[in-house]
Design goal:
mainly alpha; two-stranded antiparallel ribbon; about 70% helix; disordered N terminus; Sec10_N; Sec10-like
């Protein structure tokens, strides 16, 4: 063998030895391959006999890194210098080869055996599946037959159950009929006992005399009464058809009479027992008696007996205490707030008492709601009515109660408060349980007599309050809060007891009127439930306010007009002619100034009156919108009719205001004319030719007139607004325009005087622009052009008149005649056509 190759050396002795080993190997069995199989273990067992040394699984390595084969030969791990890896030949291979071949044959045979077994097993499984499927089909058919059997069994059981139920019903009906027959026999026996001698109740069965069986006796007696009464009715109907009673039986009249007597006696006995138990507060005995008595007329006798025995309906001290609680112990006649406080206290006591009674009623009576309905009705109709009668004595419309005692208003306030508190009481009582009793309707019916005359009394109250207030103002007892704004003479006279004669209109007073009306409307809404009567009552109440405000405002404006008339008379009284002495003229001037001061005060007073009248109308309108209108809208036409009536009521005041404003303009213009006459000098428009430069300032008359007007218009601006202000300023501007034209026609104008007049006209035009009246502005603009006739040269006048003054030709001609040079310049001849 070449050096460096690996080989196996096999000796002959070794070969023979291995052959004997192969012949001794045990045969392979399939059992060896069951469970967990390890090829290493199998090969080890296979080669154990052929290779004894192979049993050493962990040969040790030498220190030089060489391995050792099982035959003792060494194995080198490698060769240095890149030589080939060589080893000792595997000499036992020849011994293992026959073993492997035999083993392979045996394994092939085992495979054949396994395949044969698998084929047999497959055939067995197929046979088993066929048998199992056949058996499963047979089981399904069996289950179906079983379900059919169960269904038939269930149907049979159901039929048996129904039959049993019918049998049970028949048995139950038979038993019930037996019991009814037995009861009928007993009832007939009892009925025969009661149908004996009239009034004879001594021979009755023990049932009707045994106190322990009172309930049963009461039930039997009621049944017997029903049977007897029905029997009498049937007999009467039959006798009416036959129309012959010769062979008729005596009937059951005796039984009915005896039964009635017995029931009355039994009921009285139970009521006596109930009363004794009630006094002792034995609720169980009371409940037992009430339950039995419920069979007699639904127990109404016990209910009424219980309610009537309550202390609140029998004790006079409690009734007197109610009146003292409402009015108070120390007051003979309290004010409405105190009365309402006392009434609230009383109603709380009543509610608490009824609540306690409700607990007792619920524990005693089988129908507590019916008892509570009787109790609550008795409380309202007796206890509450007694209090209301003392609290609300109905006043007479022919003899009104004095205002010192509160007048109609106190009665109405007490009525509204009592109605409201009583409705609250009714709601509380209804919450305690009263069955079908209309507690709120019953409480409302308590005031039916008061509500019949309520609208007339409400209107009478408003009239009484108005008259009383006017009387106070006349006497000066009640001064309005805005009296500080009166003119000095009015305030002085008010201190002398003549307030009504001089006082201007007061917003505070009208505010009181509106407050009374608001209170009255609220009462109408409270005491009137239906929409149509409510609208009628509210409308009537609001018309009272309209009449009051209209009358008060109109009279106030008339009084302010009287002051204007007095001022006018005072002006006319001191009018003098031109030919008087200087002393008389001075006295007249002083008196005229005093008259002018009086006129100014009267104008300011009237403007204050107009301002407050406007405020009062606004108060009424606001009250109508906020309070009245919504109550009128549900009724067709009521709102529109009320608006029309409001406009009609204010028409008188409006007429007085318009006349007074016209008088104010007259008074203002009278003072303007006085100032013009007193302050305007002839030299203003025809100055002397002294060589001094012309004066371009407004004349003293113009300055004073504009200052006076500005002073007076302060009051006008504060009193008027809107269209009223515009109309007033337009009329005042037109009157001023006309007054100035008339005034200037008294003077002669030079050229320089014309310039001075043009300055005045510019001042007036600038002043009237504050009027914000376009028509007045146009007139004063035309006036500024018109005064140019005093400035231009005579030869330019025709061009001026035919041009810008064409629309005011007549005024221009009159002004031209006032020129200083009218005659000297022969202007008349140039305007001969204009003169015509």
């Amino acid at each position: 063998m070449p050096e460096g190759e690996i080989g196996i050396r096999v000796s002959k002795s070794g070969a023979s030895k291995n052959s004997s080993v192969v012949g001794d190997l045990p045969p392979l069995d399939l059992e060896n391959f069951k469970g967990e199989f390890s090829f290493d273990d199998f090969f080890k067992d296979l080669a154990a006999d052929a290779l004894p040394l192979f049993q050493d699984d962990n040969p040790k390595s030498s220190d030089n890194g060489q391995g050792t084969f099982p035959n003792g030969d060494l194995q080198e791990n490698g060769v240095k210098g890149g030589g080939k890896l060589v080893g000792v030949p595997f000499v036992e291979a020849e011994a293992l080869l026959p073993v492997c071949r035999d083993t392979r044959k045996e394994l092939v045979e085992l495979c054949y055996q396994v395949d044969a077994r698998l084929e047999t097993l497959k055939e067995d499984v197929e046979d088993y599946d066929v048998k199992h499927e056949t058996k499963f089909i047979e089981l399904e058919k069996g289950v179906e037959r079983l379900f059919e059997s169960f269904s038939r069994l269930d149907s049979r059981i159901s039929g048996v159950g129904q039959t049993a139920a019918r049998i049970g019903d028949h048995l139950q009906n038979a038993d019930a009929q037996r019991q009814v027959a037995s009861q009928t026999i007993d009832l007939i026996k009892y009925l025969m006992e009661f149908n004996g001698s009239p009034g004879d109740l001594m021979e009755l069965s023990s049932l009707f005399s045994d106190d322990a069986r009172v309930a049963e006796a009461a039930a039997v007696a009621q049944k017997l009464r029903l049977i007897a009464e029905e029997g009498i009715g049937s007999l009467g109907a039959g006798m009416g058809q036959i129309k012959s009673s010769s062979n008729a039986s005596p009937g059951l009249e005796v039984a009915v009479s005896n039964l009635q007597d017995y029931c009355n006696e039994l009921e009285n006995r139970l009521l006596s027992r109930f009363d004794v138990a009630s006094q002792k507060r034995e609720l169980s005995t009371m409940a037992e008696c009430a339950k039995i008595l419920s069979q007699f007329n639904r127990g109404m006798s016990a209910m009424h007996r219980y309610v009537a025995s309550r202390p609140m309906f029998m004790d006079l001290e409690i009734m007197n205490m109610d009146a003292r609680t409402v009015r108070g112990v120390d007051t003979v006649q309290g004010a409405p707030p105190n009365l309402m406080k006392g009434l609230s206290t009383l109603y709380k006591e009543i509610i608490e008492t009824v609540r306690k009674e409700a607990a007792t009623v619920a524990a005693v009576f089988p129908s507590p709601d019916a008892v509570m309905a009787i109790l609550v009705q008795r409380v309202l109709e007796q206890r509450v009515v007694a209090v209301l009668d003392k609290l609300l004595p109905k006043p007479s419309l022919t003899s009104p109660p004095p205002m010192e005692e509160g007048g109609y208003q106190q009665y109405l306030r007490t009525l509204a408060g009592a109605y409201e508190k009583t409705q609250e009481l009714a709601k509380e009582l209804h919450g305690l349980g009263c069955g079908d009793l209309d507690v709120e309707g019953l409480a409302e019916s308590l005031f039916s007599s008061h509500r019949e005359d309520y609208p007339e009394i409400e209107q009478a109250s408003l009239s009484q309050l108005f008259q009383h207030k006017i009387a106070e103002l006349k006497s000066g007892v009640a001064q309005p809060a805005d009296a500080a704004f009166l003119p000095p003479t009015a305030r002085a006279n008010s201190r002398n007891g003549s307030m009504f004669a001089y006082a201007t209109i007061s917003v505070t007073v009208v505010g009181e009127f509106v407050h009374w009306n608001e209170e009255a409307v609220a009462r109408c809404n409270l005491l009137t439930s239906q929409a149509a009567p409510l609208a009628t009552n509210v409308r009537a109440v609001f018309l009272c306010l309209l009449d009051q405000v209209s009358l008060y405002t109109t009279e106030g404006l008339e009084r302010a007009k009287d002051a204007l008339n007095e001022a006018a008379q005072q002006r006319n009284l001191y009018s003098i002619g031109s030919t008087v002495s200087r002393r008389v003229a001075a006295a007249a001037a002083t008196a005229a100034e005093a008259a002018a001061a009086a006129g100014e005060r009267s104008v300011r007073g009237f403007m204050v009156a107009v301002q407050r009248a406007t405020s009062n109308v606004a108060l009424v309108q606001q009250h109508f919108v906020n309070t009245v209108a919504r109550l009128l809208l549900p009724v067709d036409g009521a709102h529109a009719a009320c608006c029309e009536e409001m406009a009609t009521a204010m028409a008188n005041a409006e007429g007085a205001a318009l006349k007074g404003l016209q008088m104010c303009i007259d008074t203002i213009m009278a003072e303007v004319e006085r100032l013009l006459a007193a302050e305007q000098k002839a030299t203003d428009f025809k100055p002397s030719e002294d060589g001094n430069p012309p004066d371009h300032r407004p004349t003293n008359a113009c300055t004073k007139v504009t200052a006076y007007l500005e002073h007076m218009l302060e009051a006008v601006y504060g009193a008027l607004e809107g269209l009223n202000k515009q109309a007033f300023m337009t009329e005042l501007g037109n009157r001023l325009y006309k007054a100035l034209l008339v005034h200037w026609q008294r003077f002669t104008f030079s050229a320089s005087g014309g310039l001075r007049l043009k300055r005045d006209v510019s001042e007036y035009a600038e002043f009237v622009r504050s009027f914000k009246a376009p028509a007045v502005d146009e007139k004063f603009e035309l006036l500024g052009t018109l005064v140019n006739v005093f400035i231009v040269a005579p030869e330019s006048l025709p061009t001026l008149v035919d041009g810008s003054l064409k629309q005011a030709r007549a005024e221009a001609v009159r002004f031209i005649e006032l020129r200083e040079d009218y005659k000297s310049a022969k202007i008349a001849s140039r305007f001969s056509s204009l003169a015509h």
